[in-house]
Amino acid sequence: MNVNEAINKRKSIRKYQDREISAETASELLNAARKAPSAKNVQSHRYFVVKNKDIKEKLVNNKVFKQDYVYNAPLIIVCCADPSQYPKSVDVDETPEHYAYIDLSVAASFLILRATELGLGGVFVAWIYRDKLRKALNIPENYIIPFVLPIGYPAEDPPSKPRKSLNEICE
Q: Whole-prediction pTM value?
């Protein structure tokens, strides 16, 4: 599968097979994210990988996600970034937090496309009780937590969502 095929095949998957994701495969996903570009090559993104049933149970008990399907994913990748790693002086009128959000989103997109290529599915989830998640996983206070990625082998094949035409998005 090439990149264009992965882009066209990718869907938001919310139902997963009861099938474990190997450590090698999880490393493949994180390695794809690691190779993404970042502003000033800061590479501020950090990932908390949840596979352990006891940790998942802790997340359930603390009700950190609004959507129950997140807990059912064999792999939950908590995507974080550390804005404090960016230089205080930047080239444009943007904050370090802004760069951190952008860089993390690019890296997570690389990860999702690699997941698609490997026959996995996932979805970006931003409805998070961040304080509860931070406490449950001991995530440092200086990290932002914009979203998580539940990942697994798809147990559904939802229809593709309509996309705007090029004429609608280009000025």
A: 0.94
**Domain interval for residue 82:** 3-158
Render pLDDT for 7-19 as a digit per residue (tens, 0 to 9).
899 999 999 999 9
CATH number of the domain where residue 55 is located: 3.40.109.10
Phi, psi of 79 (to 5 degrees): -95, 120
Q: Within a domain: residue 171?
A: no
Cβ atoms of residues 112 and 120 within 8 Å: no
Q: Looking up tokens 């603390």, which residue turns up?
A: 62
Residue 147 lies in a domain: yes
- Residue 76's closest CA among 9, 140, 29, 7? 29
Q: Answer whether residue 167 is part of any domain.
A: no
Q: Pick from 7, 3, 13: which is nearest to 156 by CA?
A: 13
Residue labelled with tokens 């090029």: 166
Residue 121 maps to a domain: yes
Q: What is the pLDDT of residues 40-88, one digit of tens each?
A: 899 999 999 999 999 999 999 999 999 999 999 999 999 999 999 988 7
